[in-house]
TrEMBL record:
<dbReference type="InterPro" id="IPR036188">
    <property type="entry name" value="FAD/NAD-bd_sf"/>
</dbReference>
<feature type="domain" description="Amine oxidase">
    <location>
        <begin position="10"/>
        <end position="278"/>
    </location>
</feature>
<dbReference type="Pfam" id="PF01593">
    <property type="entry name" value="Amino_oxidase"/>
</dbReference>
<protein>
    <submittedName>
        <fullName>UDP-galactopyranose mutase</fullName>
    </submittedName>
</protein>
<dbReference type="InterPro" id="IPR002937">
    <property type="entry name" value="Amino_oxidase"/>
</dbReference>
<dbReference type="GO" id="GO:0016491">
    <property type="term" value="F:oxidoreductase activity"/>
</dbReference>
């Protein structure tokens, strides 16, 4: 089969690599001049920052991607993924804080007990409720292609729950600080917890069981390795080539329209926001993209506080500091994410938390949510949760148009790198080997 993959972010790269390994003739279209999308690095003045994610849960998803498309990930990296001892530190308005470790129930209990007696057990009880949730999701939704019209009783019951994450956290925690920690991932991705199904909180279970991991040298290395993998697999890569629309005849995709004409296809994998293609836009009109945060990449000099890889300052506006960038000698690279009422410069808001770096900035790149969505042809946060029905209104891995499949953040079975990577695995399962 001749398959066109639209989008050169992680979802598109992973789809192209897997399908080429299965023997298909694959063409990848990317509107930008380079591949990587949100995985790509941002560089200026000798400083380099991750464009979006700086770590990942469920490293098995990346390992499976590389193993199923060629050489193992660790072989390509020349080393192992790096586990994070502290995934995130959370600081609250009452000036208390908690450092959340990963991969250990006992370590998390100890960390929350430092926040207050008995809070460790309260946290552990909450996280344990997600063990059976993960088993259902893993076996029937994350690891196998699903059909919204034909789901098991267990999965249907889970996806149809009326309980929101907001209600679950209010029920499980008397201390609001634990609720802020437990709901942080969803809030950071632009969601209102009152519209998020309770099962989405399973990410806290994944953190506790599997930890969080960083790619040595930054996430952009994944894009570099996958770009090389496409070359090895004979994928035709057309950068600077935007897909204008799909050509559909008799209910089946026949071609992809680009500026220079039509590219005939047997199948298409859409790894960008489907709203950008007029043929698909009506199919997702009941969904919206989750809005990314305001982003400021900072190149700093001088003495700075010793911070973990990610620090969350719970206030309005909420500010997240990520410290994992690379810098020239004497410098430090930070990335700030802001959400909420940002009526002032984000550095002024940060200074109120006694972290004042305004006089130490030598390089700065500011990106609005609109900048990010336009740059990446979609939101890296995927689809906005608007209640339990959202999951049935978005596309992926199949679509109502025969021969059209969906991967990437807007079609992933969850948020973040592992689920975007897994969306490509689901597409590959549905399409299968070349005949």
């Amino acid at each position: 089969m001749r398959i066109v993959v639209i989008g050169g972010g992680l979802g598109g790269l992973a789809s192209a690599a897997r399908l080429a390994k299965l023997g298909h003739q694959v063409v990848l279209l990317e509107a930008a001049a380079t591949l990587g999308g949100a995985l790509g690095a941002v560089s200026e003045g000798g400083y380099t920052w991750d464009g979006s994610a700086t770590s990942t849960l469920l490293p098995a998803a990346l390992r499976d991607l590389f193993r199923k498309s060629g050489r193992p990930l660790e072989t390509e990296l020349g080393g192992e993924l790096e586990p994070l001892e502290v995934i995130t530190e959370h600081r609250f308005e009452d000036r208390t804080s908690v450092k959340v470790p990963g991969g250990s129930r006992a370590a998390q209990i100890a960390a929350f007990d430092e926040l207050g007696p008995g809070l460790g057990e309260a946290w552990a009880r909450h996280v344990e409720t997600y063990a059976p949730v993960w088993e259902v999701l893993r076996k029937e939704y994350v690891e196998v292609p699903w059909d919204p019209r034909d789901v098991s009783k267990d999965l249907d019951s889970l996806l149809n729950t009326r309980e929101t994450l907001h209600k679950r956290l209010r029920r499980d925690f008397r201390d609001d600080r634990l609720g802020l920690v437990a709901g942080h991932r969803a809030v950071a991705e632009g969601h209102d917890l009152r519209n998020v199904p309770a099962w989405v909180g399973v990410s806290n279970y994944l953190e506790q069981c599997f930890g969080a991991w960083r790619v040595p040298g930054g996430m952009a290395r994944l894009a570099e390795l996958l770009t090389a993998r496409l070359e090895t697999r004979g994928v035709t890569v057309l950068t600077g080539t935007a897909a204008r629309d799909l050509v559909v005849r008799g209910g089946r995709v026949a071609a992809v329209s680009v500026e220079s004409g039509d590219i005939d296809v047997d199948a298409v994998v859409v790894a960008v926001d489907p709203r950008r293609l007029p043929a698909l836009a009506p199919l997702v009109e009941r969904t919206m993209p989750a809005i990314p945060p305001v982003v400021a990449h900072l190149g700093l000099v001088g003495e700075l506080p010793d911070l973990p890889p990610e620090l969350v300052l719970h206030a309005d506006p909420q500010i997240v500091i990520r410290t994992g960038g690379s810098a020239p000698e004497g410098g430090t690279a930070w990335t700030l994410h802001g959400r909420g009422k940002l009526a002032e410069d984000i550095l002024d808001a940060l200074a109120r938390h006694k972290i004042d770096v305004r006089e130490q900035v030598v390089t700065r790149i500011d990106l609005s949510p609109r900048d990010l969505v336009e740059q990446w042809n979609g939101s890296p946060c995927g689809v906005l949760w608007q209640g339990r029905a959202t999951i049935r209104h978005r596309l992926g891995p199949t679509t109502p148009i025969d021969g059209v499949y969906a991967a990437g953040a807007h079609a992933a079975p969850g948020a973040g790198i592992p689920f975007v990577a897994q969306s490509a695995a689901l597409v590959a399962q549905v399409i299968g080997p070349a005949k």
